[in-house]
Amino acid sequence: MRNLLTLFLAILTCAICPAQSTLEKTRDSLRSAAAALPVFEVGDFIYNRWPRFSLMDTSISANYKRTLSSLIEANYPAGDLIAVAGDPQPAVRTLAIALLFQKEDPKLLFEIFLRINDTAQTLPTLQLVDFMPVPLLTRPQTVGEAARAMIDAYIHSAGVIDFDSYQRSHHSRPYYLSWFEVRLLRATGLTNPFQEYRRPLLTKVLGELRRLPAFDRDMYVLCLSQWVPECPLATEDEVIAAAQRLGHTRLLQIIIGRPPGTDPDVVQSSRPERYQHVVSFILSHADKLLNPFDESLLAALEQAQRDRFLRQGWTPDMLPDAEAYARARVLLSDTR
Fold first, then answer.
1. Secondary structure element (H or E) that encloses residue 185, with its range
2. Is the previous residue joined to 193 through a cis bond, with omega within 30 degrees of 0?
3. How far apart are CA 285 and CA 327, in angstroms?
4. 135 Cβ partners below 8 Å, 6+ apart?
5. Is residue 334 within 8 Å of 287, Cβ to Cβ?
6. pLDDT digits (tens, 9 = 90+) for 237-295
C-alpha cells in the first residue's frame, strides 16, 4: 500500500512540476524585463511599433527593443500570463496583460479588463514633447491606464461605448470586422506610407481574411480597404470585384443605410464614419456597381439626406457625399 502511495505521489509530482516550472519561468522572465525597462509605451505596443526614442542611437533604445522582443518571441502560454497578471509587482502585471494583448485573441480581453481598476503605478510613459531630450522626460502611469488603452483599441474599432456593451454584442460569432480592423492596424503600425518590412504581418492578416466565407470576406474587404486607405489591403480593382460579388441588391442596402449580414460592426450605427467611406466608394464607382435605373433612387436619397442635415443646421457646402451622389448620377446617365 505504501509503495502504491509513493508511486502515486511521484506521478502526481511529475505531472505538476512541468507546469509549475513553466509558470515560474514566465514569472521570472517578466520580472527581469520589468527591472530592465525604463518606460513602457502602451500606445506604441498596441499598434506594434517602437517608441520615438528608438530613432536615437542609444543604449536605451537597444535595451527597450531587445527586452520586449525577447518577451514577444517567447510566446508564453496564455494560462501562465493570466496567472502572472496577479503578480505583486505592478510592472510585471502590466507586461503580463500586454503579452496577452499581443496574442490578438479577443477572447483574452476579459483577463485584461480585470486590471482596469488597478491604480498601482507601473512603468512610466514618455512625456509628450517636441523633441526627445536626454535624459528622457516621463510621467507616471498606472496598470489600469495601460489596461484601459488595450481594451479601448477593440472598443473603438467596434464603435461601442464600454466593455460591457462590447461583450454583449461580440459573443455569438466566431469573428467580427473590428477584430480584423485591430489586426490590420497593428500590421500597418498606423504608418503612412506603408512600410514594406511589415508586409509579412499584412500577408498573414490577408491570408485569414481570404479564408472567411465569401460574403463576409467581400464585405470586410470593402469596409477595411476604405477605412484604412494607407494600407495596401487590396487594389481598387480587387475592391470593385469584391463589391460586384456582393451583388446589386446588397449594395443598395448599404447605400440606404441597412447593410446586410449579422455582424454588428458592419451596421451603420456602430461606426457612421466607416459606413460613409463605403457608401462613397460605391457611389464613385456607380458605373461599375449600380445600374441606370438606380439614378432616381440616388436622387431621392440625396435629397432626403440634404433635408435631414439642413434641419440639423448644416450649410449646403457641409453636406457629406453631396458631390458623390451627383457624380454617381452622372456616371449612371452615361451608361444609358
1. helix 177-188
2. yes
3. 9
4. none
5. yes
6. 999 999 999 999 999 999 888 899 999 999 877 777 788 888 888 988 888 998 888 88
Number of DSSP helices (H) and strands (E) in the chain, helices first: 17, 2
Q: How confident is the model at residue 10 (pLDDT cuts 50, 70, 90)?
A: very low
pTM over 0.70: yes
Q: Give the separation between CA 73 and CA 119, rounded to whole angstroms.
A: 29
Taken in order 323, 326, 332, 333, the sign of the CA dihedral is negative
Could you give the CA distance from residue 292 to residue 29 in angstroms, rounded to a whole number? Answer: 65
User: What gap in Å lies between CA 236 and CA 65, rounded to an integer?
Assistant: 36
Q: In terms of Cα–Cα distance, which of 175, 168, 198 is closest to 104?
A: 175
Q: What are the structural domain ranges in the chain?
A: 21-169, 177-334
The answer to whether 68 touches 45, Cβ cutoff 8 Å, is yes
Tell me the pairing of strands 138-139 and 125-126: antiparallel
Overall residue count recorded for the chain in this entry: 336
CA-angle at 92, arms to 89 and 98, nearest 5°: 145
